[in-house]
Amino acid sequence: MKIAFFSPLNPIQSGISDYSEELLGALARARVDGKPLDVDLFVDKGYRPSNREVTSRFDVLPGRAFGRVAAEYDAAVYQMGNSPAHAYIYRALLEHPGGVVLHEFILHHLRIWMTLNGGRRREYVDLMERRYGEEGREAARRVMLGQFPEALFKYPLSDEVIERARGIIVHSRYMEGLVRGVRPDVPVGVVPMGVPLPPVIPKDEARARLGISPDVFLVTSVGHLNPYKRVSATLRAFKALLMEVPDALYLLVGSRSPNYDPTRQIEMLELGDHVKS
Asked: What φ, ψ does residue 152 adopt, rounded to 5°?
């Protein structure tokens, strides 16, 4: 059985890159009807996967070339998430339906990037109005004014992916219910997240590695930093906290959205000595 596997891979910074590399290790040993799977990797342009164990086991091909060879594969598997790293996967799925591992139900931010960064503002407005009526049109208008309202989470824009999928894998019963709410007839499998947790590092040892005193009061925001992490509000609250706990430290840990940079606010609040990223 020949499989086309679409996913970001390291060095692309994404939890799905790590997930896929763990999964590929298992697929390299998998067999169907007694025969090993034949898996080819299709990646976005501009990079080469950095995991040598992966590249030594699998052929790596450009995603844009899939249309020319799609007929050679028994199935395509698309790892779908809500970031620009999945734009090429989204396009391939629309042209060549296949199985989808849906890591996130909300794909709105990916769709914003695909339309607005592609200069297709009208397409984005029309899409929002077609899917969500006048309410969606108003949300799109605010986005194009440079605002990213939290209400965007009300408009997942994942229905096109769900409608094109031949089958969907999700990681929770909750996600299964959301998918079936869009398309009750689609085959859905619930597969718990298979990435093993890293070993727990004792707190004192972790602080020592980072050069942080055991007595410092620590505040952290962890994950992809974007407007929805509410870092701006946290920075204001942290400024007030320093009046009571003057040696507190705020760590911003994770990649940054191109639509959000807290540096200016940190400077305005004079928090440079207490906020690290």
From this structure: -55, -25
Q: Is 182 exposed, middle or buried (0-12, 13-18, 19+ CB in 10 A)?
A: middle
DSSP letter (8 states) at residue 116: H
Q: Tokens for 233, please give them.
A: 């509000």
> One-letter amino acid identity for 42?
F
48 SS3 class: coil
Q: In whole angstroms, give the CA distance from residue 274 to residue 246.
A: 9
Q: At 218, which helix (H) or strand (E)?
A: strand 218-222
Rounded to whole angstroms, the Cα distance separating 52 from 167 reads 30
pLDDT grade for 195, boundaries at 50, 70 and 90: low
Q: What is the pLDDT of residues 119-178, one digit of tens each?
A: 888 899 999 999 999 989 988 888 888 776 666 788 999 999 999 999 999 999 999 999
